[in-house]
Write a structure and sequence with these properties.
The structure is a homodimer.
Chain A: H1 4-17, E1 26-27, H2 30-37, H3 41-53, E2 57-60, E3 64-67, E4 74-78, H4 82-89, E5 93-104, H5 107-113, E6 120-130, E7 133-143, H6 160-167, E8 172-181, H7 184-190, E9 197-207, E10 210-220, E11 226-230
Antiparallel strand pairs in A: 1-3, 2-3, 5-6, 6-7, 7-10, 8-9, 9-10
Helix pairs in contact in A: 1-3, 2-3
Chain A binds a DNA duplex through helix 3.
Chain lengths: ~230, ~230
DNA sequence: GAGTGGTCTAGACCACAGC
DNA sequence: CTGTGGTCTAGACCACTCA
């Protein structure tokens, strides 16, 4: 192993992962690990702090460090960037803004986003198309108070999501995934059967408490899936 | 602010989040930050290492640290534990094992999980019910080579997923979320209309390369959604 | 009070990438 | 070669918490 703290971390992780140290098991104190590995306290402290940050162990003064109870299960899903996906697959991608308007936010959306009813939002409906096949329908609200430059942005080169991601950093996000049956309008737009199951991804983002954007992206259920690969350890 | 490294980190994060330091902007060198905050190099190093681990900055020797390009979008979704959810909502939860058998894995599942065709798996079909209303139908395979004690486990108190989570630590997971139309059998089990949109969550987990379990959980689309709240910064 | 983790220092040497 | 980050040391003081 290249670095000492890596070796220590791998050792401890292996013992946790193998079940040798089950949840609740007390991990050796820092001074014990110092002696075991013949290193300074800073080094073992760094290891244990990292493990705690990753949720593998919990630390308490006086009581020491113990193997953490397995956390609530969570799924981490990649949200595909259509342009990048298309480039990788060698297919042609384009998007079309179907509707663009500036509107006061309605009561339901105000509730969801924590805005005051009537706040001016840029509303965009976008169709994402790959090789002439509609892949997703996106309805998006952009808070003009937080992102005023969106007002004059033509969204010619990049679709709204990509443009926003590059421009506005975010601090909080909320995701909701649902399944719905396509109604007539949606079915026509996505060229699918009325009633076909669709995957709906809603994503709301804030920047330091200020609402940035809400996107509702609808994918044909038979054509798309959200995929994630995840390791609990960094 | 309580701690020095917290103050430094908050300062830098604020400048990145506000856009004052856009993606690509070079962050002061460690020795510059040492001088600015009047602290040791270890302290600023810890701050910058943390920021790098969180993906806010990228660091390169000689070149210094720069604000990272916004990462691929990803959604983090909580997978609800039915029992905990029910306890919180004050409703009654029970589950019913509809089918239990030990079977050799078929070709498709072997492909998905990286197992050899014919490996013995414990196969379970479970219905999750809250207040007498079916909430989800779960089909699960458990690798008896990795979890031999599952063979004799009656799954009386905890459903298979909860039991496994408490017992077997995992190192890798793969998630797939899809939308499907319910067929007749599924519709009858979940007491929904045939054709209704359902959310399907597939989750496969491995422990140090060894396959542990695959679960396919189907939720009625109108009754359930996956929700996640996420901040990029730890 | 005693023992733990949390933080911080003022050095040091090394690896690596760019000039 | 130079300057950067990566790692590590051998101390130190403090805060918290349990006995």
């Amino acid at each position: 192993m290249k670095h000492l703290h890596q070796r220590i971390r791998d050792d401890i992780e292996a013992r946790i992962m193998s079940g040798e140290w089950p949840p609740g098991h007390r991990i050796p104190f820092e001074h014990e690990l110092m002696a075991e590995y013949g290193c300074s306290r800073m080094t073992v402290n760094k290891v244990l702090s990292t493990l705690a940050a990753n949720g593998l162990i919990t630390r308490r003064r006086r009581a020491g460090s113990v193997v953490a109870q397995p956390s609530n299960q969570q799924a981490v899903l990649q949200i595909q960037d259509f342009a990048r996906e298309a480039a990788r697959a060698g297919t042609e991608y384009r998007f079309k803004i179907l509707r663009r308007s500036i509107e006061p936010i309605d009561a339901a959306a105000a509730q969801r986003t924590g805005m005051r009813v009537g706040t001016k939002m840029l509303s965009l409906s976008t169709l994402h198309v790959m090789d002439d096949v509609p892949q997703a329908f996106e309805q998006r609200l952009i808070n003009l108070a937080t992102v005023p430059e969106a007002d004059t942005e033509p969204f010619k080169d990049d679709p709204p999501g990509t443009w926003l991601l590059r421009r506005v950093p975010w601090t909080d996000a909320e995701h909701i995934v649902r399944a719905v049956n396509a109604d007539g309008t949606l079915a026509r737009r996505l060229q699918i059967q009325t009633g076909a199951a669709c995957l709906v991804l809603e994503r709301r983002t804030w920047q330091a408490g200020a609402f940035v954007t809400e996107a509702r992206i609808t994918y044909p259920g038979d054509r798309h899936q959200l995929v994630g690969r995840f390791s609990p350890v960094a």
